[in-house]
Amino acid sequence: MLATWLQALVSGLAIGGVYALIALSFSITFTTTKTLNFSQGEFIGVGAFLGVAVLYLLSGQDEGAALAPGASAGFNYPLAAIAVGAAVGVIGILLFITAVRPFAGKPGMSWVMSTIGFGIILQSIGLAIWGPAPVNLPSPFGDDVIRIAGAGVRPQEILVLVVAIVLMIGLDLLLRRTRMGKAMRAVANNPSVAALMGINVSAVMIGAFALSSALAGIGGLLVAPIASASIFMGLGIALKAFSGAIVGGLDNPRGCIFGGFALGLLEASVALWQAQWREIVIFLLIILVLAIRPQGLFGARTLDKV
Amino acid sequence: MRSPHQPTRRATLAGAATLLSAPFIFRSAHAAEDIKLGFNGDLSASPSAQSGRAAVVGIQAAMADLAREGGVLGRPLTLTIRDDLSQPPKSIQNMSDLIDNEKVVAVFGPTNSGNALAWKHIPNQKHIPVMGCIGSATDITKGTGGDNYMFRVGSVDRIQVVTLMGYAKKNPRSGKIGFLTETTGYGQGGLKDLQEVAQAQGLTPAANEKFNVNDTDMTSQLSKLKSAGVETALVWAQGTPIGQLMRSMDKIGYFPTVLTSWAADNLSFMNAAGPQLAEKPIFLRTVSETRSPRQQALFDRVRPNIDADSAFSFAVHGYDGTMLLARAIQQAGSTDGAKLREALENLNGSYEGFAKTYDHPFSRTQHDALGAADQRWTCWRDGKLAAYSDDIVASLKPEDFKG
Amino acid sequence: MRHVLAACIIAALAAGLVAVTANEFYLRILFSACVYLLCALGMNVLLGYAGQKSLGQAGLFGAGAYSVALLTTSLDMNPWLALVLAVAISAVFGVLIAAPSLRVRGPALAMVTLAFGIVVEKVVTEASDVFGGAMGIYAIKPLTIGGVPLSMAQWVWLGIALCLGIHLLLRNLLTGRFGRAFLSLQADEIAAGAVGVPVLRFKVLAFVIAAATCGLAGALVAQQNQYINSDFITFNLSIFILLVVLFGGSGSLVGPLLGAVTLTLLSAVLARWSWIERFANGALLLFALYAMPKGLAGVLSGVFGKIAGPKAAAEIRPPADVPLPTRPAIVVDGPLLQADDVCKSYGGVRPAHNIGARLMPGDIHALIGPNGAGKSTLINMLSGVVRADAGRIAFLGADLKHATMHAICHRGIARTFQNLRLFRELSVLDNVLLGQHARMSNGFLSSLFGLPRARREEARARQRAGAILDFLGLSHLAEAPAGSLAYGLQRRVELARALATEPRLLLLDEPAAGLNPQETAELGDLLLRVRAQGITILLVEHHMDLVMRISDHVIVLDYGEKISEGTPALVQSDPRVMAAYLGTDVEEMAPASSHAVAGLA
């Protein structure tokens, strides 16, 4: 029984790490631009496939066969992560320019629809290039189960958790300690005042979208060895990460991280009871939380100035 | 594996090109001449799309062969293809497009069983035979009162379940059986079959758990099976989730005998599970991995156009289905739907196909050409599909297949 | 009437087309167009008018579809009765989705509706014992006439008839009191409440209308096809419904028709190259918003319509000396409004502390004090925008402590806002008509069916709005979008809107802010004329000359406390007032107004 609970804890933390990372990526654009990318799921899928493509290139393998287990070994995987981060970041900039900037700050939240539209386009291009079938992406640390007190865990799951935590601590420091972070928070607070202070608001917003998208891409690369790379893999992850972010409070990066982990653990514990009711329980709970605290658990209550 | 059959491939491509332009250019000119067949199934949207594409390749190969023999009733065959993206509303619209608009005489498909259930009343009302070659849900070919126009040359969940359950019953290890199914139409259709067959064979499952098609961690479900003492797990799901299931078994170190749906033959299963874990489950296919020279020749011919070795069986179903349909048209002497159904249900002579030799494959009540005797035990060995055999398989007799 | 005729002609043409079409495929496409049109008609009310984005419409489609499925199979109900019940059940689901949506806004609202759609999708997938899961429910009873199931052509006729009927009903609703109220929600919920629109009730109503039409569409699909499974209910469907509305032209009456017909035809044409269809939908979603924010309807009206751009005339016409519409006079014994010991604090800030005030009927009261004295907070508490922490506010003897904004408006208190909260996209006339909202008595049904009562009320409201515009000299600007006017005119329109609620007490939050000296003087005359109509006024103002000229009674606040009150002359000579303005915070006072110092000195 203990092993079962421990197993659930481990599973919950691993998937929660991914949720937290993507939830943070939502928070980054929301705090700076008051918008976010509703097609983050497609970015995750594209990130995973780009990772597969880079690994094929680095390991010099023929496209015909599945990637060999050693393809991710050594520096290949970190290099792939950098390449994916950069490439998806560029797609994020494209997203900002075409689908967000024309609508940001205007009433009506048209950016919700335009980012969904961008995602549909990205997905259909991805389908045309890579097809609908899942593709294998080996983990850099092999695939052997590690046993901790009866619970099994794969190296990749530990890697996901570690990388997610490291990235999140790094970003937290970046946001709170550096000039760039201060600029981002200033833009979040009041773009016109930030502009008066000599901050290049447009560049900060572009940077936020690039960073957010890069996180999604890297998230995809991290999850791919666990879930197989697929163009559809990101939808569920992004949705739950979004839920985590909303519940934690979109304008509070640390709240988002908490929300992500909480959702992962919740999911794992509901699965102990009835796995197929997981989504229903989670989303009903989210509706309930928002009905009671519309700003999320840790979000700041916004007051309408009259 | 470069194809020695380049002309065929080119012909296929040319055929496809003609098909795309046909509705605009040749429609009126050829309408009286051609025998138009249709395909309606997923070719691009879901992971099973590769099965749909393989079936089309098989159908087109058969049509090419028929064309060499001068067509059917002296008329050439054409195939009109519609992709339903796995969406039921789209699939329904396509069916109407093919039958009402394109005036095809018969339809192949669909890829996903749920879509067949969504539109099967249309061909039944319009008297247009449908030849299934991919979707394996038992209910597809089940009659609903009145004439039944749904036929199938392909795997049938019920038949697989009956065969697997026979194995489970004889398995000396199987003190208790448990079900693990995916919450899609495919998985839940299979679960229904599993429950009914288990009852018919006097077995009671000790556990019955479900998982989502995108799940990556099924440890909680497996823990329940483990604590219920299940030693034979019957799994109904698509390739990738079965692979994830094997990985989760590895995590908690629990390996019952695993009998799965034939989706485990999909390359996506191998990719997800990895070569070692992929060797655990046993499943049934309609085409054996030890191919006869004749099968090998077809394999070599179509392989360049299909996405994976394992999708070959769909090409075989498509090929055999087309040939049976052609023989029925020949026998009926007409393309009239009702006559075609008559002919299919009373097909004369025997036809040596690639899955088996068909001898009176359909009857009024039996619309599935492949039965329990046509199942081939299969497993993965060294990253390739292989025929499976053990003492239990050898000892199975027809009377073990109840339900 | 021209619109009704045109709609009937289009429907008749479509019905005629059905009669001559033998090809069932074409009929099916027409049927799909009808189904999506039904979804879009309701969605347009929710999205285009009330401005609420719902990403969970598939859930409501599912509610309708599964209702007929279960009612006709498990309960063996008559299919027509089941259809009606299914719409009712979907409407109930509309309330369910609206309830949690009332408090949340922005991305969280999107999340709530999205989550609702997913929950429905998952429930019908997982609870397969009831809903059949992905295997679905067979043998749903189709609609029948005399026991015979409808033919394909009859289905399309039914679809066309339903679309026409619902379109005309919704048009009745949307072109009058209810349509304006929905639009006011989209523009500014606080202003909507202040003019007497019950915001929550109208939000729920918009959700319910969208739910009912989506449910109807779902029920029709299930009955026509006699089968439904969980694969029908997807997020893509929710997105497609939104796309139909946005592409057609959200907030336009013809938008849903244009969107549904164009996109259904596009989908049918692209069926041979289905992967392009998905791409095209994505591209449309992205670029339609960008290139044609008002959708096809906007493009068409740009091409065919007159170049509508009423020149915003800068001057105010001389006001006409007409009486304002007012409530029947009553004799008030004592104060009209009395506030006692009212307190409010935000964390450490305390903008109101034990404030008391008595507003006597027929007087102009002025509320003055340095910046941050708590003047706006008091106005906000009196009008129900914020709740007082403690104390009592009685209007005509009734306690207002727990009254909502719209209820306060109904009782006869109107207000304007310091930072102008006009419905900028709406015309001046519509703004003023929204002020009449609470004074109109036509309910949902009489508006929906365009009953004589609704027409009578609308005519009366227009006539009264006309009188108010005349009174203020704004009649020539009635059709101009309020947001296009010069600042001073916008202030005056807001005053007109407040007067249209026929208040007994008018609260004005810095009505002269941003006005030039001449406009300020004109405003003074105007307020005196308003007082002459029997309306009591409380105004917050920095322009001391204005205050001193027109006020009967002045209340002075400083740091959330009342430091003085009385006649202008009395207050002017109060040393505490001098200290508050000059002694403690000269720098802050300086930019406020030089008039103030002049007036006080």
Automatic annotation (TrEMBL), chain A:
The chain crosses the membrane at residues 6-31, 43-59, 79-99, 111-131, 158-175, 195-216, 222-243, 255-274, 280-300. GO terms for molecular function: transmembrane transporter activity. It comes from the Bacteria. It is found in: Cell membrane. The keyword Membrane applies. GO terms for biological process: amino acid transport. This is Amino acid/amide ABC transporter membrane protein 1 (HAAT family). It comes from Humitalea rosea.
UniProtKB/TrEMBL annotation, chain B:
It comes from the Bacteria. Residues 35-357 form the Leucine-binding protein domain. Belongs to the leucine-binding protein family. The lineage of its organism: Bacteria, Pseudomonadati, Pseudomonadota, Alphaproteobacteria, Acetobacterales. One of its GO terms (biological process) is amino acid transport. Residues 1-31 form the signal peptide. Keywords: Amino-acid transport, Signal, Transport. It comes from Humitalea rosea. This is Amino acid/amide ABC transporter substrate-binding protein (HAAT family).
From TrEMBL, chain C:
The chain crosses the membrane at residues 29-51, 81-99, 155-174, 204-222, 283-304. Its main location: membrane. Keywords: ATP-binding, Cell membrane, Membrane, Nucleotide-binding, Transmembrane, Transmembrane helix, Transport. Pfam families: ABC_tran, BCA_ABC_TP_C, BPD_transp_2. One of its GO terms (cellular component) is plasma membrane. One of its GO terms (biological process) is L-alanine transport. It comes from the Bacteria. Residues 337-584 form the ABC transporter domain. GO terms for molecular function: ATP binding; ATP hydrolysis activity; L-isoleucine transmembrane transporter activity; L-phenylalanine transmembrane transporter activity; L-valine transmembrane transporter activity. InterPro entries: AAA+_ATPase, ABC_AA/LPS_Transport, ABC_transp_permease, ABC_transporter-like_ATP-bd, BCA_ABC_TP_C, LivM-like, P-loop_NTPase. The keyword Cell wall biogenesis/degradation does not apply. It is a multi-pass membrane protein. CDD domains: ABC_Mj1267_LivG_branched, TM_PBP1_LivM_like. It is found in: Cell membrane. The keyword Kinase does not apply. Gene3D superfamilies: P-loop containing nucleotide triphosphate hydrolases (3.40.50.300). This is Amino acid/amide ABC transporter membrane protein 2 (HAAT family) /amino acid/amide ABC transporter ATP-binding protein 1 (HAAT family). It comes from Humitalea rosea.
